[in-house]
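Continuing the series of single-chain predictions for the mutant panel. This is the parent chain; the variants come on the following pages.
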Amino acid sequence: QVQLTESGGGLVQAGGSLRLSCAASGRTFSSNAMAWFHQAPGKEREVVAAITWSNGRAYYPDSAKGRFTISKDNAKNTGYLQVDSLKPEDTAVYYCAAGGSIYYTLPKFWDYWGQGTQVTVSS
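Parent structure:
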């Protein structure tokens, strides 16, 4: 069992930045990768970044490249998502997940999920 807890969300003006954190506990060694997803009201949950714990290999969809940066601190069992140049369309609940591969782009293939943290970007 892996427990994930997100933090760092909040209200920010367009053009600002946020750094989200995902603290992992439990059997973290059972998961090879972690990822960040976001879900806006009425929309599908979609991946914005993923990273392999062992080697730091990262994945970003084209829509996230340049503004989203994923990182990790293995000693703290914590992952991070830096979001720059925030836009109103980034408003969503952001979730972290743990699972087997950064190449899993669909939520159904990830094994563990945090509770989510709300990011709201004002115009």
